[in-house]
What does this fold into?
Amino acid sequence: MKKELSKDTLSSIIRELSNTPIANKKEMDRRNSINPFHKSRTEKKGFRFQNVKLIHYSIGNIKLNSLIHDITKGNTKDIQSIYTVEFSKGDFGEPHIDTNSRTTLSLVLEKNSIGGDLIIEGVNSNLNKPGDYIIYDGATTLHSVSKVVEGSRKSLIVFYTKNYSKKKSLY
It folds into this structure.
């Protein structure tokens, strides 16, 4: 089930993202050792995602982590990765699970597209506007992004190493 952030909270998250450095090589090496899927997405274009723009951020921004905690109720020490993913016309994400992410947050930052819908276990999650979000067990829940027909869609994705979701899929 989707939820919606207040405009103030969404603005705070966007502001803190702009204050957060890009993950450095050491941090990306650590992420890749925990989750080989990170490496495959950054080194092999077309693996699970077609032509999308991924930006991995440092997990060291205490303010951003606190805002994320307020949404997920997860322990900030269990954050595995924080990144944005931007889909443009023609882009899509193949069905997949988030290897080693026991809790995944998907939060829409920008959406002015036709298509580009987050599909979870075959059902459109209806994240249609900035601030819409969903939390699920990424390691067991099959999900994808439909092809963007027009426009673009940008989301914040957060992986946790522990399961903070109450169910296998959506809540």
User: Anything to note?
Assistant: Residues 38-47, 167-171 have pLDDT under 50 and may be disordered. The CA atoms of residues 153 and 163 lie 27 Å apart. The radius of gyration is 15 Å. The longest helix spans residues 7-18.
